[in-house]
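Entry 12.
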Amino acid sequence: MPFSLWVVARHLDSFEEAIWTGTSQHGDRDTVGAIIGGVVVLATGEDSIPVLWRAAMEPVPDPLA
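Predicted 3D structure (tokens):
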């Protein structure tokens, strides 16, 4: 957790840089990426996710449908 917050503090202006910096290290990369991504998106908005990354996401079904 401390490493994830350190990355967020240094790369809050770039979702992509934050994710690459956090997941380039050894350890539990998926958890670190999820923490970093969640915090950066909450702070900067969904538009901070690169367009190509959003286009490649799998659709999430609506649980209320």
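Annotation: The two ends are 35 Å apart (CA to CA). The CA atoms of residues 25 and 52 lie 23 Å apart.
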